[in-house]
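Filed under: proteins

Residues; backbone shape codes:
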Amino acid sequence: MNKIPKKHRNVRCRFAAPPSKSYTHRALVIAALASGTSIIRNPLISEDTLLTARALEALGVPVRTALDTVTVEGRDGLFSPGGNVTLDLNNSGTSLRLLASLALLSDSTVTLTGNARMQERPVGPLGDAITAAGGQVSYLKKAGYPPLRVGGRLRGGRVIIDGSASSQFISSLMIAAPYAEQGMEILLPADPASRSYLDITLQVMQDFGAEVRRDGYRVFRIGNRHRYAGRDYAVEGDYSSASYFFAIAAACGGTVTVSNLNPASVQGDRRFVTALAAMGCSVTYGSDSVTVSRTGPLNGLTIDMSSSPDTVQTLAIVAALANSPTTITGIGHLKFKESDRTSMTAALLRSLGGKVETNGSSMTIRPALLHGGTIDPAGDHRTAMSFAVLGLAIGRITITDAECVNKSFPGFWDALEGAGL
């Protein structure tokens, strides 16, 4: 399926943010660990979250999915899949990483695998940490990469983990930790990538009853006396997905309001609107909404986006329309995403006349006269949605494989159409 966004100027649009993918993944996994029944309201139903739900079912967890709720019958920290099980997580890195530590709570060996791109995404630091916590990890093809087989048990104790490639390695251990045989102390020797996602993990853990003590982003101490209890849980709206709507106001001019957002959210991608404000947009907050407007020129900026990784591409698109250079730093870990997003974004912008320089951990976008073209997102949902915004700003852009947005935002194209775009 191809999509060809039409050029627009001075937009006036309202959208509702879809539910957060990050919160939905974590709520599903923690509800599966909990004692009792959990009802997850307003979950994101997408390809990735359904992969997590189906994997939990394969581990022996009853999961019932409806239009706006998911009901999970918690297993109280013990999974009984009825024999050794293989979980195929396609290209959902969140699913594979969060579930890897849960495998230590299964009474059978668990193999975690995925598609060709998943098998290029490293998990070695997580495998090392699982081993230190009492597990047995073997790699079936290439050391440090999926597919991996996990057995053993979750003993706990002190575990050192390198989260510089992905904070999900840390989140995986943290989520499982309340069910360890002894308390767990997780030590981070260096700053983790995307550390705001650890705040999301902590929030959901505590919402379900866990007790966590921390020393910034260096040490997390999690006991095994406060375990998860099933509950009624509502998922908040997603700033990552809302970024595309905010970017429309910045790229096309005009005003966009997005509802179903928590203005005080711990989501790191909330910083995206702060970046737009620094570029010349105005930002106002309501009780459950955010409005972005632009009437004047766009200015470039220099910004560290290490805690806002899923909006880097969106920001790069807006920056390509600015009247001065933009440098985005702290993005070295983007090469481990669904695609190498730094290189992919740079190459695609250059194909449209953009001027982009990269050095691995940063990207600089300079003013240039852009033209239309064809964008193949290579299966990366965020690439497709980001360049759709550029198509609305300059026209003459065709997005191929447009259905890849179903990974995180199945209603994206319908939302644009519903807003008259």
